Amino acid sequence: xxxxxxxxxxxxxxxxPDANCTLALCPAELSVYQxxxxxxxxxxxxxxxYLGPQYARFRPRFYYWFFIPCDLLSLVLQSVGGALSxxxxxxxxxxxxxxxxxxxxxVVVIVVFIALTFEYVWRYRKGQRLTPRTTPLxxxxxxxxxxxxxSITFILIRCCYRIDELSEGYGGDLIxxxxxxxxxxxxxxxxxxxxxxxxxxxxVFAGLDEEKIVQETTTAHDPEK
Length: 225
Fold this sequence. Notes:
The chain is mostly helical. The chain has 8 helices and no strands. α2 runs antiparallel to α3 and α4 runs antiparallel to α5.
């Protein structure tokens, strides 16, 4: 990154399931061709079912239908920006703006997700003072919750850094700072991934299948206002 090496674009596959253009594009292409619910929306929905959907402002399924399209839209914007940057060899201001728009939208969505999570926790705690659980929360769920919070925080830091990095364009000083890139891009993503490898949500929610979530969403839903 810090060396002035001319890029070779001849081996780039920009579109399709075999796309290898950019770090931003590949997840978007995976989403388009074989999309699965984003981890955050998935585990938050399952957490609501596990803790009690009566404390949620919305039905559990809402978090699927809201966050997954938002996640896909932000990745598509970043992929378009990456594709335009590739074809223009980094000389397109429009490409930078599109990428920044995708990243900024992703930051907004993450902040909304965090806000809804905090609100649910507040409503849950308030409800527990009136009607405590008959069984305590499992140790695995508590550990997973802490690690999930760490993962989301690191991803948020990474996205904010990327916005600042691209704000100067591809000719700016920040985008050529390799040490900062490794610390705020590579390390953030690596730690975010490994926190959920250590505290994998699978064993925690093994008993909460899709059937129960559907059942919870079709029952009466009257959360405390």
